[in-house]
């Protein structure tokens, strides 16, 4: 049979096999496994049947715990069911995994293996998650490549049905889940030949069925539990054999023969590495290379890790082996060694005892850790491990790939050692996020993989920020299957798709001698040479690089492509690289365009065609002199004024040299200094706002809406203007509170993202020229130097005394310094203005618990973090625990502060004789409602600390340890709707019910934004989202109403873009309310499919249509006999659809299912009306005595 | 009984009252009611060039926005297999209108450039449209565009559409031509089956709160029909295309005058939006009554009877009338 090849990533390979051999798929989004669920959902929506001809059903649950529960239920009633997950998601499944395995239920969980959060979160790959499941009773099958993922997903499904042991099929997150490779697609006939229908029927026969009732899941007791638990043993004894049986059957169907342990290398090797996962492919490549060079080494790839077959393992090894290195991609602190190492040692000991194999003596076994959190693992490191084995006394327990200069466990290796063949094309492509570079490269791989005999590989490295990000595509093509599962570092082709990268990244470091460098440049071949930095010139000359330029911006502009240079740069690549004959390549690109964009309309296709056609004429090779002539030098990574930690640590990560940081540079517990974004000047705005004071009305709206704290206002005494730069602008302050003072609006030119929201919000228009506002966008580059100086001057002016500010006005609130600045959120983000407002109002005494999601990523992703400090060094203290537990986590903060307040007061009373009665009484009785009162308490606590500074009594020391908590703390619990409405709702509900003083801010984007827009229970009816491709059929959950049901929770719904004053009031009231508070904040989002410049306008429309009701529910009013609910919205001005159909999330359904869209829109419109009417009535309910009197 | 039958661009109509391209045709139910009220044909609301092109661009931009930039969210929307941008919804509407009605259904294409959108006329024909009304809504604001080319634009668009379809094509025009008569002649030669006179340009307005220019829909008034009256009367008998009058027809008298000037069809919109579709009967009955009162037997008899060619004072349609009008004050 002719083989069918496809170019896909690991997630698609797993989902393909899993989807076709199951019928119920319950999922929950988590990186990097989400695409498996999304693909399954898309196939199900499109009616793709499984191998039995029926369409599997996909259901999104509220958490991975929920998904595993649903799977367990589906399995128990006889369905074939699967799920996909990663990391902490897998941990949430563990309770059910014990149950599923305990009940001998056949199923497979497919895992894109990801680092477990420990001292920090990481979305990248290692085996710490799967290794945490070792005792569940699941079998573990490891795939090392995309092809193996497709193969093993099927083998696991076949084996589980026969063995009745459930399987955990895993592959490395990102490195395999997201790597694109050309693989053979297994046919459905092969699948049918692998899956025994009789076993499926047996599984169904074991199902819960009232026609043949049984009971399962009983409670058992000491006299019988144990024996029952032992009854499963024979299934585990048989399991390995069954897996091999199906591997053999598979080999008969396709041309790939796998074993439980696959050995490769010299048949009489003396040194052997044992490992599993994608790193084994790099090791395979290294072993082949080394043996070709006359060495004598080997590799065992562990396929079936559990149940571990000692016999199969020992027999896979050559009897000549003298030393073994076992490599684990996980860390188990405190253990004798990492899991695979311990098992291998044990296997050798057991084999020796039982006489299995022909080893006379147990080899010398050492164990090492590699590749945690997708740390690169290369053939150079493999060579380093083999070299270590050659040593007389190799390290027993080591790490490889890092420099451990603290415990000296790392082994050394030669980073220049390379096994890459000459016959493999290797290219790296630097693109700007969303400029289409990655998409074009994926297309190139498909073209080469599917149009030629070549094998193709693509891996894509993304930034950790969401705006102005760099993407690096690593591509390989060659005649042989590609095992190089590591980044390209000796490139034959380097492409820079964005001119601005020249000053930021050392791209030519990747290039080998004679490589090609393709640069998207606004300068032509004759003028380019002196426009590039000296460092780049040096590399070009030294490496004899062939240098090409194209003005892709111009071609894109002419052909209507806007900022997307993808098609143009892709065409250049094919034109220069000669991977395919030129005409053939151009036709293939056009075919790919048609395939990719056909559904988007003819205009899009034609536009791309035009770009292809105009590219070649604009591509030039540069003839350059053999000497460095440029006067341009790359700027320093961070300012010289940055703290030492930032210069020595943060800057290295920014510069892309994080891999070289030694262990000693790291905090031991994941605790870092705050306020570091200020040192990373990203300069991503093409245009920045320029202030015209002549028409400014000092409303503060520009500052309150700025998502990046990049435009600020300040009020100050005129004396501070002394020495101001010539272009620094100021005006007289308008208002009595600072009469005679000056006022400035200042942009942070290098931190602004150019989102335009400030200009959109600015209400002040010129009388002479309506389009001219008090803020107007102008190109950044000509203003950069001047405004950098102005901003530095602005920052140096002292912040106004908080006690003097009317913080209950928008204008006043914006005179407070933001303690959340320059985050890596999307340009124009709808969430961050709320976080910034919080930081201004309460940041100097706030402790924030942040649920995992967008807000934890822009809030706490290295290298630089946005929470910062005021002039006194105070600012928000921030931590992310998990996704699901955030309410409880923040609640714990409250418990501590309440306890420490209590304990502190007890000690103050005890030490009153030292402190003085007045001070002691002042501290204990302090009312800390206003800024003045908080200030006074801080003064008192400072006095206390001074008085006790030299006191060494136990009580004094204990009091000093908790004295800070005598000043009121503001506890904030932040997260998105995925957390608050779904995975964290149980905990949130409990915390709200507690009555304790916590403040919950829900940044409601109505989807799981951070993982790519999956439906949550906050998603409104009729909106399209992932897992709701046909539009969400159910209405949005009313979280606010549910909280109001407790009647002692302060609840507010706000939308800054609609009513900033109401939003401010809600924040102040929520914080002041002495019980639990919940603020639900409308956050426009890129996942809504809007022009982000219009984000504020959409917020306004959401409110004006009656969809997003602004309200405040203040339980304090009940005591006054008033209705606690105040509606702050006016009557709806226009129908819901007028708001909704501006957004792609609603609009796209009219394109895919017009009839369905109409029905859902009708229902959604009705939801809006009903909710509006309900809230209207609710707000008129009579409360208190007044009510009871009338009722009598 | 008077005979109201007329022929409009080769389509036999039971009377001259056609529903013009407007929101009136958005719902099939409304169309059915209009047919029951005796409307003789319907022009479906316009499929705009912008709808076809710009919607594609906008949707494309929004779907691509932020993609492949950040590792946890490589995209933000699902991509359903059957997701199609383009005029499918409009085509479906034409199809449904055709199924629901027995009167002719005329599709309306509204654009101003020679481009891919013209190809959709073929799809409209396939969807069952009996004719196409092409509305070249063009405001030549460029200071650089050659004035002679502005006129050519209309001819080129018509020629392109005529090449694509075999059903009749009407050109809906604005009155702002240097020589209306000559343009009409050119369009006739290029194959126009009818001229629809005139397009109303919705003029912008200034919002005094926002200090911003905003669109503001103002319904037509009876007076506006006079412009069509002048030009239909002038062109009648010289240009072989059919004529439809549109814009400002609010009373039976307005309609009667236009038929007398030479209109084959009377397109109604504002009057029905303002008074409700039932008002159709008032207009219809008014014409019948007038015909009876004046003892006209048929619309054909009336048609063009007071055109420039047939009226007693041809100068009344020309410059001389200006002076007369002033003197009449």
Automatic annotation (TrEMBL), chain A:
GO terms for biological process: electron transport chain; response to oxidative stress. The keyword 4Fe-4S applies. Keywords: 4Fe-4S, Electron transport, Iron, Iron-sulfur, Metal-binding, Oxidoreductase, Pyruvate, Transport. Binds 3 [4Fe-4S] clusters per subunit. Its cofactor is [4Fe-4S] cluster. The keyword Electron transport applies. It holds the Pfam family TPP_enzyme_C. Transmembrane segments: none annotated. GO terms for molecular function: 4 iron, 4 sulfur cluster binding; iron ion binding; oxidoreductase activity, acting on the aldehyde or oxo group of donors; thiamine pyrophosphate binding. This is Pyruvate:ferredoxin (Flavodoxin) oxidoreductase. It comes from Candidatus Fischerbacteria bacterium RBG_13_37_8.
UniProtKB/TrEMBL annotation, chain B:
GO terms for biological process: 'de novo' pyrimidine nucleobase biosynthetic process; 'de novo' UMP biosynthetic process. The keyword Methyltransferase does not apply. Transmembrane segments: none annotated. Pathway: Pyrimidine metabolism; UMP biosynthesis via de novo pathway. It comes from the Bacteria. The keyword Protein transport does not apply. One of its GO terms (cellular component) is cytoplasm. Pfam families: DHO_dh (PF01180). It comes from Candidatus Fischerbacteria bacterium RBG_13_37_8. Residues 4-289 form the Dihydroorotate dehydrogenase catalytic domain. Its cofactor is FMN. One of its GO terms (molecular function) is dihydroorotate dehydrogenase activity. Keywords: Flavoprotein, FMN, Oxidoreductase, Pyrimidine biosynthesis. This is Dihydroorotate dehydrogenase.
């Amino acid at each position: 049979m002719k083989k069918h090849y496809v170019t896909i990533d690991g997630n698609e390979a797993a989902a393909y096999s899993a989807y076709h051999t199951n019928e119920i798929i319950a999922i929950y989004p988590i990186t990097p496994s989400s695409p498996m669920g999304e693909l399954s959902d898309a196939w199900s929506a499109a009616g793709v049947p499984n191998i039995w001809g029926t369409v599997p059903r996909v259901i999104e649950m509220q958490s991975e715990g929920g998904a595993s529960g649903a799977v367990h239920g589906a399995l128990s009633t006889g369905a074939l069911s699967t799920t996909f997950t990663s990391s902490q998601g897998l941990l949430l499944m563990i309770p059910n995994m014990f149950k599923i395995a305990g009940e001998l239920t056949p199923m497979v969980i497919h895992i894109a293996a990801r680092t477990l959060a420990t001292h920090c979160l990481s979305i990248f790959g290692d085996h710490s998650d799967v290794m945490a499941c070792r005792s569940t009773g699941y079998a573990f099958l490891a795939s090392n490549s995309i092809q193996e993922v497709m193969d093993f997903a099927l083998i696991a499904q076949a084996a589980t049905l026969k063995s009745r042991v459930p399987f955990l099929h895993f592959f490395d997150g990102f490195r395999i889940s997201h790597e694109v490779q050309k693989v053979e697609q297994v046919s459905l006939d092969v699948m049918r030949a692998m899956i025994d229908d009789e076993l499926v029927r047996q599984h169904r026969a074991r199902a819960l069925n009232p026609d043949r009732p049984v009971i399962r899941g009983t409670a058992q007791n000491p006299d019988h539990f144990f024996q029952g638990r032992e009854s499963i043993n024979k299934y585990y004894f048989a399991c390995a054999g069954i897996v091999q049986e199906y591997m053999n059957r598979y080999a008969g169907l396709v041309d790939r023969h796998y074993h439980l342990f696959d050995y490769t290398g010299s048949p009489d090797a003396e040194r052997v590495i044992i490992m599993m996962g994608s790193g084994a492919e790099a090791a395979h490549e290294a072993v082949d290379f080394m043996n070709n060079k006359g060495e004598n080494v080997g590799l065992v790839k562990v396929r079936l890790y559990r149940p571990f077959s000692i016999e199969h393992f020992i027999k896979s090894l050559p009897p000549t082996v003298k030393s073994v290195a076992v490599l684990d991609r996980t860390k188990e602190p405190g253990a004798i060694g990492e899991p695979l190492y311990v098992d291998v040692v044990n296997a050798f000991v057991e084999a020796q005892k039982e006489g299995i194999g022909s080893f006379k003596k147990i080899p010398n076994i050492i164990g090492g850790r590699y590749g945690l959190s997708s740390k690169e693992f290369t053939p150079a490191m493999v060579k380093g491990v083999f070299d270590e084995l050659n040593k007389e006394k190799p390290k027993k327990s080591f790490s490889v790939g890092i420099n451990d200069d603290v415990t000296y466990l790392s082994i050394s290796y030669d980073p220049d050692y390379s096994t890459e063949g000459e016959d493999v094309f290797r290219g790296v492509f630097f693109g700007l996020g969303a400029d289409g570079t990655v998409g074009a490269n994926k297309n190139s791989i498909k073209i080469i993989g599917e149009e030629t005999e070549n094998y193709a590989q693509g891996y894509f490295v993304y930034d950790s920020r969401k705006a102005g990000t760099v993407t690096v595509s690593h591509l390989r093509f060659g005649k042989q299957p590609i095992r190089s599962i590591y980044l390209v570092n000796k490139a034959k082709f380097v492409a820079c798709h964005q001119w601005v990268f020249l000053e930021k990244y050392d791209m030519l470091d990747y290039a080998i001698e004679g490589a090609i460098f393709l640069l998207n440049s606004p300068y032509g071949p004759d003028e380019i040479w002196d426009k590039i930095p000296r460092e780049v010139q040096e590399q070009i000359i030294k490496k004899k690089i062939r240098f090409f330029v194209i003005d892709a911006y111009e071609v894109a502009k002419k052909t209507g492509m806007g900022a997307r240079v993808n098609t143009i740069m892709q065409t250049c690549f094919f034109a220069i690289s000669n991977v395919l004959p030129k005409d053939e390549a151009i036709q293939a690109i056009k075919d790919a365009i048609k395939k990719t964009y056909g559904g988007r309309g003819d205009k899009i296709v034609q536009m791309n065609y035009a770009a292809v056609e105009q590219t070649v004429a604009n591509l030039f090779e540069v003839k350059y002199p053999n000497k460095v002539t440029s006067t341009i030098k790359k700027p320093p990574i961070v300012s010289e004024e940055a703290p030492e930690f930032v210069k020595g640590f943060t800057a290295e990560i920014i510069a892309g040299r994080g891999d070289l940081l030694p262990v000693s540079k790291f905090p031991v517990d994941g605790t870092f200094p705050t306020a570091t974004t200020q040192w990373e000047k990203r300069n991503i705005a093409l245009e920045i706002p320029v202030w015209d004071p002549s028409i400014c009305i000092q409303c503060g709206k520009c500052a309150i809406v700025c998502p990046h704290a990049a435009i600020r206002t300040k009020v100050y005494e005129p004396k501070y203007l002394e020495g101001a730069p010539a272009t620094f602008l100021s005006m007289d302050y308008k208002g009595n509170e600072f009469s005679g003072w000056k006022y400035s609006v200042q942009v942070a030119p290098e931190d602004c993202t150019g989102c335009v929201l400030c200009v959109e919000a600015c209400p002040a228009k010129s009388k002479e020229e309506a389009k001219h506002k008090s803020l107007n966008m102008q190109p950044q580059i000509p203003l950069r130097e001047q405004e950098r100086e102005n901003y530095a001057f602005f920052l140096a002016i002292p912040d106004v005394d908080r006690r003097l500010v009317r913080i209950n006005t928008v204008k006043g609130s914006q005179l407070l310094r933001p303690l959340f600045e320059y985050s890596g959120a999307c340009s124009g983000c709808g969430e961050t203005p709320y976080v910034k407002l919080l930081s201004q109002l309460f940041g100097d005494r706030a402790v924030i618990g942040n649920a995992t999601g967008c807000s934890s990523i822009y809030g706490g992703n290295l290298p630089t973090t946005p929470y910062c400090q005021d002039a006194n060094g105070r600012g928000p203290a921030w931590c992310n625990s998990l996704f699901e537990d955030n309410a409880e986590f923040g609640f714990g903060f409250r418990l501590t502060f309440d306890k420490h307040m209590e304990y502190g007061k007890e000690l103050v009373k005890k030490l009153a004789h030292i402190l003085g009665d007045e001070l002691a009484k002042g501290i204990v009785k302090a009312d800390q409602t206003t800024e003045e009162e908080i200030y006074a308490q801080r003064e008192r606590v400072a006095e206390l600390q001074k008085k006790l500074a030299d006191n060494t009594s136990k009580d004094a020391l204990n009091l000093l340890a908790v004295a800070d908590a005598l000043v009121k703390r503001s506890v904030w619990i932040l997260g998105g709707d995925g957390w608050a409405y779904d995975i964290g709702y149980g905990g949130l509900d409990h915390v709200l019910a507690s009555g304790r003083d916590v403040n919950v801010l829900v940044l409601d984007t109505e989807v799981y934004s951070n993982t790519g827009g999956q439906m949550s229970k906050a998603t409104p009816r009729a909106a399209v989202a992932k897992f709701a491709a046909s539009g969400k059929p159910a209405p949005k959950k009313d979280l606010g109403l549910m909280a109001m049901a407790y009647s002692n929770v302060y609840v507010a719904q706000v939308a800054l873009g609609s009513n900033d004053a109401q939003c401010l009031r809600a924040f102040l009231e929520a914080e002041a309310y002495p019980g639990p508070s919940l603020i639900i904040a409308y956050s426009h989002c890129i996942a809504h499919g809007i022009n982000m410049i219009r984000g504020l306008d959409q917020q306004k429309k959401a409110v004006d249509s009656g969809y997003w009701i602004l309200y405040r529910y203040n339980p304090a009013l009940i005591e006054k006999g008033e209705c606690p609910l105040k509606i702050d919205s006016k009557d709806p001005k226009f129908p819901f659809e007028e708001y909704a159909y501006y957004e792609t999330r609603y609009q796209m359904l009219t394109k895919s299912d017009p009839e369905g869209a109409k029905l859902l829109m009708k229902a959604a419109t009705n939801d809006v009306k009903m909710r509006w009417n309900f809230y209207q009535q609710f707000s008129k309910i009579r409360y208190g005595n007044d009510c009871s009197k009338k009722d009598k | 009984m008077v005979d109201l039958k007329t022929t409009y661009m080769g389509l036999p109509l039971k009377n001259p009252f056609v529903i013009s391209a407007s929101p009136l045709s958005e719902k099939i139910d409304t169309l059915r009611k209009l047919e029951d009220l005796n409307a003789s044909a319907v022009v479906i609301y316009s499929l705009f060039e912008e709808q076809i092109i710009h919607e594609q661009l906008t949707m494309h931009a929004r779907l691509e926005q932020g993609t492949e930039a950040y590792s946890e969210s490589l995209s933000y929307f699902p991509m359903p297999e059957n997701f199609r941008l383009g005029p499918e919804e409009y085509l479906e509407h034409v199809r449904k209108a055709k199924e629901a009605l027995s009167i002719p259904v005329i599709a309306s294409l509204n654009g101003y450039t020679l481009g891919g959108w013209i190809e959709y006329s073929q799809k409209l024909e396939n969807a069952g449209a009996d004719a196409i009304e092409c509305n070249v809504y063009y405001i030549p604001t460029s200071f650089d565009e050659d004035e002679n080319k502005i006129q050519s634009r209309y001819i080129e668009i018509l020629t392109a559409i005529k090449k694509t379809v075999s059903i009749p094509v009407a050109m809906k025009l604005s009155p702002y031509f240097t020589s209306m008569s000559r343009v009409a002649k050119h369009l006739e030669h290029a194959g126009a089956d009818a001229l629809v006179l005139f397009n109303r340009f919705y003029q912008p307005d200034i919002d005094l709160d926002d200090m911003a220019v905003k669109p503001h829909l103002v319904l037509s008034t009876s007076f506006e029909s006079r412009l069509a009256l002048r030009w239909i009367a002038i062109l009648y008998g010289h240009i072989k295309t059919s004529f439809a009058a549109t814009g400002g027809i609010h009373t039976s008298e307005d309609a009667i005058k236009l038929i007398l000037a030479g209109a084959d069809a009377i397109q109604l919109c504002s009057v029905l939006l303002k008074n409700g579709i039932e008002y159709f009967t008032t207009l219809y009955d008014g014409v019948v009554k007038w015909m009876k009162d004046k003892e006209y037997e048929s619309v054909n008899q009336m048609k063009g009877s007071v055109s420039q060619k047939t009226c007693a004072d041809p100068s009344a349609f020309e410059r001389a009338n200006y002076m007369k009008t002033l003197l009449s004050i």
